[in-house]
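Changelog-adjacent note: as of this version, every example in the card shows the full chain rather than a window. The one below runs 301 residues end to end.
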Amino acid sequence: MKEEKSIVSLERQATVASGWIMLPIILALLSGGVALLIYSIAHGDAHPLWGLLILAVLTEFVSVILLTGFFTLQPNEARVLLLFGKYRGTVRTSGFHWTNPFYSGGNKISLRARTFTMEKLKVNDKRGNPIEIAAVLVWRVQDTAQAFFDVDNYDRYVQTQSETALRHLASSYLYDDGEPNAITLRSNVDEVSQALRQELQQRLAKAGVAVDEARLTNLSYAPEIAQVMLRRQQAEAVIAARQKIVHGAVSMVDMALRELAEKEVVNLDDERKAAMVSNLLVVLCAESEVHPVVNAGTLYT
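Full-length structure tokens:
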């Protein structure tokens, strides 16, 4: 059994007449019909001139139908023209227009940029940790034919696909503490937002929608693990700070010993060097202020 392939609609430009040109023509036709009707009645003997009367009525009827062909478009607005269910083109030019009155009305589509703020979603990151994530999407209709014919409701389609893409994105990255040079949700917001935009563009292209921007607006651990993860982050911060302190202290002690030896300020044996190193490390790495005891006597007493 062959699988049916969906037909992708493509927008094409429709040509319409200027409303300002057609308005006086139709008004003249309407006035002519009225004048012809009066003439057929006034110049008849016992009966009106039936031929002219019928012509006048037909003229008035056609004029009224032609009046329904006028429509206006604002900037960044388009109208899809349908003739008995068949797509005839799209008008994008703003202004006052006239077209075939049998074209279906009410098919206007806004081309302006729109903002969709996604609600906060509770999902699992790549490691399986529950997180809460939200994003904002700036989008606009690019192809009116696709938006009108290829999806049932393009507004709802954008909302559904946006939430699906955000869930998929969150499950593809770690929240934080990833491998070296790995992209994480918390540390690489720009890269993650760009990846979200690209995935949304692929998903929404079927609806003729262009994605201008997509950015994360909320990112946090779920409440049930937030406190535990906060303590872990605090512990990691303390460890990182301690590593820097110890590295700096060791460098300072090494510099002090080197300076004393090069300038021959004092000669220290290994035992005294060890004692000096121990004392300096205590002073430099201690959390609280250190009050050393000053030895006013000889170094070896």
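Structural remarks: Residues 139 and 243 are 46 Å apart (CA to CA).
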